[in-house]
């Protein structure tokens, strides 16, 4: 008899949501986490009284999270104190001017109409169209398995409204947005978001043009930091007997007769289980942690063919003043051409951009208690890829932090430089080392059409029986709500097959 | 004999159809702007991996 019914490798949101649901179904479940805290990229750390989120900075599209907590017999809002985030986003132009979109679609349409009257009306049409698309996605796609052609057929059969949005497959993100919005100033508020998928606007599928709309459905910040979400899953799971062991590294998945049989720890201990759920990068799992003679050659070829999503450095800054920003999230407004150009001439060539562009998170706008009184915390997420030409991140780290602060001080956040009290930085190399994310790819495998659904590593392994995948690597992809959805999907599959 | 002719015709028709489809696809591709061509090339490069990814 095995030591556990289920072992989950990794205590990220995907691992903990799957583990807690499985524990609630009466399965004896153990979660093994290599670091000293839960949450992975969705966690929060403290430095000199300031609390910084490691990676994820807000929560949106909360329907999968609500479903997960309902499966645990509770409510998301009862477990985590969610602060409404409004305005939705602010955009900072190169001349220092700012445009801020409120959460409401109508309010945003009015702001856009001031820049371009016809685009204001276009935003209403755009939002109506993508509101329908989001509803369809949330109903089925996000929380349904997509491991086989029959799963896909079932998905389409159960949500026939998906067919209405098929034309988006043949278009690019850039095409969809430029077909709605004619003003470059407006386009500048929507181009950068394509990089969430790890690709520039001209290479991302038109399906993802929903991104500039999706946050208008609502965004929230958990009081106390992003780590409150995985902590809530841990708390709920532990009520059902789920165990979590921190500082416990898994080095191998035990496979007997092509069936997962448990795990081997770094200290040589073997723990057996009937089912193993992996919340770590699928490529690392299959190529480093499973005996290769147990894998079909086609699975090895498939794993080696995936491309990684983007990596980013995160610069954490403590301030002794209130930064002159207008929203929890601000983006350096960039045109479609600038983001495409960044992709080809910087990212692909390993050259850091001369001017910082990316995302600025201001968590203490929503939750002032995350910094000492009168102080604030910022998470700067400038663009910067893992592979740098002729150097590496260990050498570039400090100059990069200084350059980023200097640059933002010059137009985007006046006074920033002289009010910095502390800084810290996690480079893509740090993410790789601390969170075991190959190439520091925060969204894991790239998210284009050829690496989605049935072409993404399967949530139910096709090579090893009893092995299931959750997290960024598998369907529906990278992000907090999506990895929680993957936990729901894994629990459904385990319920169906085990 | 008539049966052989019918089979030959069918084969010829299939080839013609294939040529027409390929020609239409090439025609459509050449009409796209450079940005769309880069998108299609990007996806096209991944297509050979799809069978292996399906089994991953």
What does this structure look like?
The complex is a heterodimer of chains A (498) and B (56). Chain A is built from 17 helices and 19 strands. Chain A has 498 residues and is α/β, with parallel strands linked by helices. In chain A, the strands form 4 sheets. In chain A, strands 1, 2, 10, 11, 12, 13 and 19 form a 7-stranded mixed beta sheet that branches. Chain A has a 7-stranded mixed beta sheet with strand order 8-7-15-16-17-14-18. A 3-stranded antiparallel beta sheet of chain A has the order 5-9-6, with no helix packed on it. Chain B is mostly helical. Chain B contains 3 helices and no strands. The interface between A and B is medium-sized, with 28 and 16 residues.
Keywords:
heterodimer, A: 498 residues, alpha/beta, seven-stranded mixed β-sheet, B: 56 residues, mainly alpha, flat
SSE blueprint and pairings:
The complex is a heterodimer of chains A (about 500) and B (about 55).
Chain A: E1 4-9, H1 13-24, E2 29-32, E3 44-47, E4 50-53, E5 59-60, H2 63-71, H3 76-79, E6 82-84, E7 89-92, E8 98-101, H4 105-115, H5 117-139, H6 149-158, H7 173-180, H8 184-187, H9 211-214, E9 219-222, H10 228-239, E10 243-245, E11 250-256, E12 259-265, E13 270-278, H11 282-288, H12 297-305, E14 314-319, E15 329-332, H13 336-347, E16 358-361, H14 363-366, E17 376-382, H15 393-411, E18 420-426, H16 428-435, E19 467-469, H17 480-497
Parallel strand pairs in A: 1-2, 1-13, 2-10, 7-15, 13-19
Antiparallel strand pairs in A: 3-4, 5-9, 6-9, 7-8, 11-12, 12-13, 14-17, 14-18, 15-16, 16-17
Helix pairs in contact in A: 1-10, 1-17, 2-17, 4-5
Chain B: H1 2-31, H2 34-46, H3 50-54
């Amino acid at each position: 008899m095995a030591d556990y019914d289920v072992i989950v490798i990794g205590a990220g949101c995907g691992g903990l949501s799957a583990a807690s649901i499985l524990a609630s179904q009466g399965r004896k479940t153990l979660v093994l986490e290599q670091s000293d805290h839960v949450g992975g990229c969705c966690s929060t750390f403290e430095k000199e009284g300031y609390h910084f989120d490691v990676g994820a900075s807000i929560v949106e599209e909360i329907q999968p999270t609500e479903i997960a907590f309902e499966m645990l017999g509770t409510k998301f809002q009862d477990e985590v104190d969610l602060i409404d985030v409004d305005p939705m986003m602010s955009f900072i132009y190169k001349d220092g001017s700012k445009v801020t979109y409120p959460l409401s679609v109508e309010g945003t349409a009015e702001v856009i109409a001031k820049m371009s009257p016809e685009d204001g009306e276009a935003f209403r049409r755009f939002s109506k169209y993508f509101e329908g698309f989001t509803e369809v996605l949330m109903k089925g796609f996000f929380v349904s398995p997509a491991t086989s052609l029959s799963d896909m057929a079932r998905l389409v059969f159960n949500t026939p409204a998906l067919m209405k949005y098929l034309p988006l497959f043949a278009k690019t993100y850039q095409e969809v947005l430029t077909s709605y919005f004619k003003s470059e100033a407006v386009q500048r508020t929507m181009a950068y978001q394509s990089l969430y998928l790890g690709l520039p606007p001209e290479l991302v599928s038109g399906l993802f043009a929903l991104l500039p709309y999706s946050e208008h459905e609502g965004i929230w910040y958990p009081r106390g930091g992003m780590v409150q979400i995985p902590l809530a899953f841990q708390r709920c799971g532990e009520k059902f007997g789920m165990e979590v062991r921190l500082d416990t590294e898994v080095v191998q998945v035990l496979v007997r007769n092509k069936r997962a049989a448990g795990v081997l720890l770094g200290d040589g201990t073997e723990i057996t289980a009937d089912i193993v759920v992996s919340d770590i990068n699928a490529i690392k799992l299959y190529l480093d942690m499973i005996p290769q003679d147990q894998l079909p050659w086609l699975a090895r070829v498939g794993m080696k063919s995936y491309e990684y999503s983007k990596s980013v450095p995160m610069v954490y800054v403590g301030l002794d003043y209130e930064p002159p920003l207008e929203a929890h999230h601000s983006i350096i407004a960039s045109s479609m051409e600038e983001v495409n150009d960044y992709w080809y001439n910087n990212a692909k060539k390993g050259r850091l951009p001369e001017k910082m562009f990316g995302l600025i998170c201001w968590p203490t706008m929503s939750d002032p208690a995350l910094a000492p009184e009168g102080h604030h915390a910022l998470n700067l997420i400038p663009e910067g890829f893992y592979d740098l030409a002729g150097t590496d991140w260990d050498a570039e780290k400090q100059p990069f932090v200084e350059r980023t602060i200097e640059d933002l001080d010059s137009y985007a956040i006046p006074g920033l430089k002289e009010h910095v009290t502390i800084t810290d930085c996690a480079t893509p190399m740090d993410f790789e080392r601390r969170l075991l994310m190959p190439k520091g790819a925060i969204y894991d495998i790239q998210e284009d059409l050829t690496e989605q659904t049935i072409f993404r590593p399967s949530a139910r392994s096709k090579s090893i029986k009893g092995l299931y995948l959750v997290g960024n690597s598998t369907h529906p992809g990278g992000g907090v709500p999506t990895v929680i959805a993957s936990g729901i999907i894994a629990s459904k599959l385990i319920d169906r097959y085990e | 004999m008539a049966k052989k002719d019918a089979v030959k015709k069918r084969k010829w028709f299939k080839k013609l159809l294939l040529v027409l489809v390929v020609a239409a696809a090439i025609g459509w591709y050449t009409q796209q702007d450079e940005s769309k061509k880069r998108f299609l090339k990007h996806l096209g490069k991944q297509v050979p991996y799809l069978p292996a990814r399906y089994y991953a």
